[in-house]
Design goal:
23% strand, D-Maltodextrin-Binding Protein, domain 2, 3 domains, Double Stranded RNA Binding Domain, 10 helices, 5-stranded mixed β-sheet, 32% helix, 313 residues
């Protein structure tokens, strides 16, 4: 790595995506203070198909891969050197020539509840409308509060908050991590604890994708990889892979390091209407963390059966 090399960082153009790209650049500058300056790290905004679809749920449009397709194509063309992603947006199978082996320290993975009048989820009046584009959030809400209604809420964090203020819904749910990164924690009515709303797989984690054969970039990124976060994310994603998980299926999963060299994974699978829910959990040492994810994913599939409604969407 030399000081004159310029690296191009690919990202979506939303305020949150840009905040994540800038966080990555700052971590790289700190880790390589003697070799890099801001001039060596150019942020390149790439508009994705997912950003352009605002009138329907991603599950109807083709899945969460719509947020990364154009970025990965730019990587494969060498138009950019690496890309910064929200890991919960990533499909479980990456293109053959790309890899994600750098995960930044994971932010708070919880969802938060935001209501227009300050009511909690527990106290929200029957028949109230909650806006969300997430089948995972929808199904868990309806599982706990079948008396509520859920409607489509697409767009950036700012767009969803605006829609809420305009009265298009009584409440919404967002990721705590995104609000933290945008400095918008003040809008939160209350966080939802892990026990009450199991997070999306990899929620709160930033991953950095690069070409497999680019050893210079691999070396650059290794300095900012957070190994515990990487272990947790890979464990969760292994579970998701067994269920062919995408935003078409209500799946949640959360791994924690429960004690030294031990990882614990909790996961659940729901029907979109929230009427059916299956839960599994297990532990392993670090070396077995990916196998743990695969095992629990298979357990969920076996419990639900191949004709489970979520698999038919």
């Amino acid at each position: 790595m030399t000081s004159h090399k310029k690296y191009r960082i690919g990202t979506r153009g939303s305020p949150l995506a840009l905040a994540q790209a800038h966080e990555t650049r700052e971590r790289l500058l700190k880790a390589h203070a003697n070799q890099l300056t801001e001039e060596n790290l150019e942020i390149v905004v790439i508009k994705t198909t997912g950003d352009q679809i605002q009138d329907r749920a991603l599950s109807e449009a083709g899945g969460k891969g719509l947020f990364v397709k154009e970025i990965e194509e730019a990587l494969l063309r060498s138009d950019i050197d690496f890309a910064v992603h929200s890991m919960k947006d990533m499909e479980t199978t990456l293109p053959e020539k790309l890899v994600i082996d750098c995960i930044l320290p994971r932010e708070d993975p919880r969802d938060v509840f935001i209501s227009a009048d300050g009511s909690s989820l527990q106290n929200l009046a029957p028949g109230s409308l909650i806006g969300t584009s997430s089948l995972r959030r929808q199904s868990q809400i309806l599982n706990k509060r079948p008396d509520l209604k859920v409607g489509l809420f697409r767009g950036s964090v700012q767009t969803r908050l605006r829609k809420l203020s305009e009265g298009q819904a009584d409440a919404t749910l967002l990721a705590y991590a995104g609000l933290n990164r945008l400095g918008k924690e003040s809008v939160i009515t209350h966080p939802l604890e892990i026990e009450d709303m199991l997070p999306a797989v990899a929620q709160g984690a930033i991953g950095i994708e690069h070409r497999v054969d680019d050893w210079g970039v691999a070396q650059l990124l290794a300095a900012i990889n957070h190994e515990e976060s990487r272990l947790r994310i890979n464990c969760e994603r292994a579970m998701l892979a067994e269920l062919d998980g995408s935003c078409r299926t209500p799946i949640a999963g959360y791994a924690v390091v429960s004690r030294e060299d031990t990882i614990e994974l909790k996961a659940c699978l729901l029907s979109p209407d929230g009427k059916q829910r299956f839960d599994v959990s297990g532990t392993s040492d670090f070396k077995g963390s990916i196998a743990l994810g695969h095992r629990l994913g298979k357990e969920l599939r076996d419990m639900a059966g191949e004709n489970f409604p979520a698999f038919q969407i």
